[in-house]
Specification:
heterodimer; A: alpha/beta; TIM Barrel; Elongation Factor Tu (Ef-tu), domain 3; 2 domains; eight-stranded parallel barrel; eight-stranded antiparallel sheet; globular; B: alpha/beta; 3 domains; about 20% helix
Chain lengths: ~400, ~375
C-alpha cells in the first residue's frame, strides 16, 4: 500500500445548491456543467457567476471542481469554446472533463487547465490510455466496462491518474456508442440530448419467441462493498454518477462514501461493519436494483433492470435547510410535503442524524401555522437546534403522520 | 472512386475473382470484428485469396476492448497472415496506438463515434504519422461538412452508401436471458410503445449486443452528391440487409454506376431506405426547447430566484451574491415568472429571515420583500437596466 494514499471522492453537482450539498457532506471534488458543451442539456447547469461561486465555495472547503466539456462537439460548437475555456481558467477550476480530441486541443491552446478524459471516450485499455496521455490528458475516467483489476494495470503501466465510477446509473452501451436518440428523437445523445430510449420496454420477436423486456436497461452501480478493492488497486478517484438527481442523493452518496474513506484515511482499513452500515444508507435512496456491473468481472445478463420505475427509497427528501434563526427555528425549503408532528430527520454533514418532530410549522413571518407543507415553498420549523444551511431533511416514507 | 464490400462468409470468396481495380474487400474475423463471422482460419484463407487475385483486403479489428479483451485480440492478430493484409481497420484508440507503434502496416481509422469536428480529425491524422491511409467516416456528418473536411485532409475518406445504421453497441449479452437462448448469435426484432419506430434489428453475439435502425442507409440515389463531397471510397455493407443479398449482387449493383439499377433497387427494397444525416444534421435544434428560457438565469444583473410566495404578504427571494451588486431598498428590479409574466417594481422594504427590516442585503441567503401579484415560485429576479 502506497504511503499517504488518499483517494478522492468525486460527486455530481447538477446545480450550485447541489454542489454545496455534496461538498458539505464530504465530497473531495465535484463535477458540474456550464450551459453548453456537456451531456446534460436539460439539467439546470451553471452560469458563469454560479461557477465562480461554486469554485470559491469548494476551494474554501478544500474540495476541487471539475467542469464537464464532454460532448462530442461539432465544428460550430467549437467556435465559442475558447472563450469559455479561458473563463474557466480565470475561475481556477481544477480540471475539465473532455471526451473529444477537438476539445482537448482547444483546451490546451486556450488554458492551462488539467484535462481529464471523460468515460464517454470509452478508454478501456493500456494502449488507449497511453495514446490519450500523449495527447495531453492527465487523468482517464475509465469506461464502466473495465474491472478494478484492469484499472490498476492501466494506472501502473501509464502513470496516469485513474478514475472509476463507483456508484450511480449506467449506460448499457459503451459510452459514446449509442445514437438511438439521434435517429429516433432528433436529439444528439452525445451533445446532451439523450432521450433514455434504453429504459423503454420493448417487445422482442425472435424466430419462435416473443417476449416483452426492458432488455437495454441497466441496473444501477453500487460499489461500496468493493471499496477495499478500489483502495488496494489505488484508484485515484471514485466517481459517483448523478447530476440530474436530487439533493438527498447528493447528500447520501457524499456522506456515505466519505465516511468510509475517512475511516480508511484514519485506520488504513475499513471495517465490514462500516461498509454494511453505509451500504444500508445507500439502500435508502431511490434507485434501480443495484449491481456491481463489471467491477469484478464483465457484467452478465443479470445486470439488466427488468422494470420501468426506480425502486422507491425508504426515505424521501422533504426539504433543505436554507437558513436558521438562532435558538428558535430553521427555515426549510420544502421538496416533498409533510405534516405537522411528522418525525423529520436532519442529516448532519458528518453522517449523524437528528430526529426533530415537526411540532410547529409556520410561514416565514410566523403569522400563519400550517398542518401540511407544500413543495416549492419555504416554512419555518420550530426547533432549538441550529442546523446550518444545506442540511438535508428527510422523512421515512410511510412514517408518522 | 474505390468501392468497399464485406465478405459475409467464406462461400462468397468466388465472387472476388476478376474484380475491377477499384473494388476492395473487408475481411472481418469473428474474434476481432464486432459483427464478423469468419474464423481466423477462414480470414487467412480469404486474405490469401484476395492477395492472389490482386484485390486489396482489409482486416477489420473494430471491437472496443477492455485490457483483458485487448490481450486476447493481440493473440488473434498474431495468428493472421499480415503479409496478405492491405490495411487494418480499427476503432479502439488503443488498437490504433498499438499498431502505430508496433507494426509496419497501413491503417484505416474508424471515426464513427464522435469526431464531428475538423480539429479532432486533423489531430488523428497527425498522430497517424503516414501509416494512416483512410478515415472511415461516421454517418452523422452531412455532405457539406464531409466536403469541407475532404478539402483540408490529406488522408482518404470512406463513407457507407448502403447498409444498416448502427444505433447501439453494448458489450453485454442482452438477448440471451429474455429470449431464453444459449445460441452464440441471437437475432430479434424489437419494438416499443414508447417510440414510433418499430422493428429495430437487434443482434447478440460474442462481442455483445447491437441495435440497428429499422430504416437502412442508402445514398446511391444521390451518388453525384456523394462524389461532390470528394470522398475517396464508398462502402456497401450487405451483411444484414433485408432480402439476403449476396456479395455478387452488391458488386453488380455498383460496378457500372448504373443509376437505373439504383432506382430499381430502391423501389424494390423490402425496407425503408433513408439518407440519414447526409443532407443536414439538426440533431441539436431541439436543445433550446428542452429548457424554459424564462427560468434560465441571466449572468448580468441577476439577484436571485423567488422561493416562496405568500399572497398579500411577501415574496421570499433566495439571493445570489455578486461581488459587486447588492440589493438595497429603493432599487428597481424585474421579476420574471416561469409562465412569462414580468413585473418591474421598486423595492419598498426588505426583511431578513429573523424578520428584521434591513436597508441593504449583505450576507442574507433569504430575504422577504412585499408581495407582488402574478409572481410565482421560481421567478427570476434581476436588477433593472
Amino acid at each position: 500500500m502506497q504511503e499517504n494514499w488518499n483517494p478522492e471522492l468525486l460527486a455530481p453537482a447538477g446545480s450550485l445548491e447541489k454542489l454545496k450539498v455534496a461538498v458539505l457532506y464530504g465530497a473531495d471534488a465535484v463535477y458540474c456543467g456550464g450551459q453548453e458543451f456537456g451531456l446534460r442539456t436539460a439539467a439546470e447547469n451553471f452560469t458563469l457567476p454560479e461557477l465562480e461561486e461554486g469554485v470559491e465555495f469548494a476551494h474554501a472547503h478544500g474540495s476541487k471542481v471539475f467542469v464537464v466539456l464532454n460532448g462530442f462537439l461539432h465544428d460550430k460548437d467549437l467556435v465559442s469554446l475558447p472563450n469559455f475555456v479561458s473563463q474557466l481558467d480565470e475561475l481556477k477550476v481544477d480540471a475539465v472533463i473532455v471526451s473529444d480530441l477537438g476539445v482537448i486541443e482547444t483546451v490546451k491552446q486556450h488554458s492551462n487547465i488539467a484535462i481529464h478524459l471523460s468515460t464517454q471516450a470509452s478508454c478501456l485499455n493500456i494502449e488507449s490510455a497511453k495514446m490519450w496521455k500523449s495527447l495531453g490528458v492527465e487523468r482517464v475516467v475509465l469506461g464502466r466496462e473495465s474491472t478494478i483489476e484492469e484499472a490498476a494495470r492501466i494506472k501502473q503501466e501509464t502513470g496516469l491518474e485513474v478514475e472509476m465510477f463507483i456508484h450511480g446509473s449506467m449506460c448499457m452501451a459503451y459510452s459514446g456508442n449509442c445514437v438511438i436518440s439521434n435517429y429516433t428523437s432528433g436529439r444528439d445523445s452525445n451533445r446532451g440530448g439523450c432521450a433514455h430510449s434504453c429504459r423503454f420496454e420493448y417487445k422482442l420477436e425472435g424466430s419462435d419467441t416473443k417476449v416483452n423486456s426492458y432488455f437495454m436497461s441497466s441496473k444501477d452501480l453500487k460499489g461500496i462493498e468493493l471499496l477495499p478493492k478500489f483502495l488496494d488497486a489505488q484508484i485515484d478517484s471514485l466517481k459517483v454518477e448523478g447530476r440530474m438527481k436530487g439533493h438527498l442523493y447528493a447528500a447520501t452518496i457524499s456522506t456515505s462514501y466519505s465516511q468510509a474513506l475517512n475511516e480508511y484515511r484514519k485506520n488504513k482499513s475499513i471495517s465490514s461493519e462500516t461498509i454494511e452500515k453505509l451500504s444500508g444508507e445507500l439502500n435508502k435512496i431511490s434507485h434501480r436494483d443495484y449491481t456491481t456491473a463489471s467491477l469484478l468481472n464483465p457484467a452478465g445478463p443479470d445486470s439488466v433492470y427488468e422494470d420501468r420505475e426506480n425502486a422507491e427509497g425508504d426515505y424521501a427528501a422533504v426539504g433543505v435547510v436554507v437558513d436558521s434563526v438562532k435558538d428558535d427555528a430553521v427555515i426549510v425549503e420544502i421538496k416533498k410535503a409533510f405534516y405537522q408532528n411528522d418525525i423529520l430527520e436532519f442529516m448532519l454533514f458528518n453522517g449523524e442524524v437528528i430526529e426533530v418532530p415537526a411540532s410547529e410549522i409556520s410561514n416565514l413571518d410566523a403569522t400563519e401555522k400550517y398542518e401540511k407543507t407544500n413543495p416549492g415553498t419555504l416554512v419555518r420549523i420550530k426547533t432549538q437546534f441550529d442546523f446550518p444551511p444545506f442540511t438535508l431533511v428527510r422523512r421515512k416514507v410511510g412514517g408518522a403522520k | 472512386m474505390k468501392k468497399v464490400f464485406y465478405l459475409k462468409n467464406i462461400s462468397e470468396l468466388d465472387y472476388i475473382k476478376n474484380l475491377s481495380s477499384e473494388m476492395e474487400i473487408i475481411i472481418s474475423p469473428k474474434k476481432l470484428s464486432r459483427l464478423g463471422e469468419l474464423t481466423l482460419e477462414q480470414a487467412n484463407q480469404a486474405l490469401k485469396y484476395c492477395h492472389q487475385n490482386h484485390v486489396p483486403a482489409f482486416l477489420e479489428w473494430d471491437v472496443l476492448m477492455t485490457e483483458n479483451d485487448f490481450q486476447q485480440c493481440l493473440k488473434s492478430i498474431k495468428q493472421i497472415d499480415l503479409e496478405h493484409v492491405s490495411a487494418i481497420r480499427v476503432q479502439d484508440i488503443g488498437a490504433y496506438h498499438y499498431l502505430l507503434a508496433n507494426l509496419s502496416i497501413d491503417l484505416h481509422l474508424i471515426i464513427e463515434s464522435g469526431n464531428h469536428n475538423l480539429v479532432a480529425i486533423k489531430k488523428w491524422e497527425e498522430v497517424g504519422k503516414g501509416k494512416l491511409k483512410r478515415f472511415v467516416l461516421g454517418l452523422e456528418l452531412p455532405k457539406n461538412v464531409i466536403a469541407k473536411y475532404k478539402a483540408q485532409l490529406s488522408t482518404a475518406c470512406e463513407l457507407q452508401v448502403l447498409g444498416k445504421i448502427l444505433l447501439f453497441y453494448s458489450p453485454r449479452s442482452l438477448l440471451s436471458r429474455p429470449m431464453n437462448s444459449t445460441d452464440e448469435s441471437i437475432k430479434v426484432s424489437a419494438s416499443s410503445e414508447e417510440t414510433p419506430h418499430k422493428g429495430f434489428f437487434v443482434i447478440e453475439n460474442i462481442h455483445g449486443t447491437f441495435m440497428f435502425l429499422p430504416k437502412d442507409q442508402f445514398l446511391l440515389d444521390v451518388f453525384e452528391e456523394v462524389k461532390l463531397t470528394g470522398v475517396d471510397s464508398i462502402r456497401i455493407d450487405h451483411r444484414f440487409l433485408e432480402g439476403g443479398f449476396s456479395l455478387q449482387e452488391m458488386i453488380s449493383l455498383v460496378e457500372n454506376e448504373d443509376h437505373e439499377k439504383w432506382s430499381s433497387f430502391k423501389e424494390n427494397y423490402a425496407n425503408k431506405l433513408i439518407r440519414g444525416y447526409f443532407n443536414v444534421n439538426k440533431s441539436d435544434a431541439i436543445f433550446p426547447k428542452l429548457k424554459n428560457y424564462r427560468t434560465k438565469k441571466k449572468t448580468d444583473n441577476y439577484i436571485g430566484k423567488v422561493v416562496d410566495v405568500k399572497k398579500e404578504q411577501y415574496l421570499a427571494i433566495s439571493v445570489f451574491h455578486h461581488d459587486t451588486k447588492k440589493l438595497a431598498v429603493g432599487d428597481k428590479i424585474e421579476i420574471s415568472s416561469p409562465d412569462g409574466k414580468v413585473k418591474r417594481i421598486e423595492v419598498r422594504s426588505i426583511r431578513n429571515i429573523a424578520l428584521e427590516s434591513i436597508q441593504n442585503v449583505t450576507k442574507e441567503k433569504i430575504i422577504l420583500i412585499p408581495h407582488v401579484g402574478g409572481i410565482s415560485v421560481k421567478a427570476q429576479v434581476h436588477f433593472l437596466g
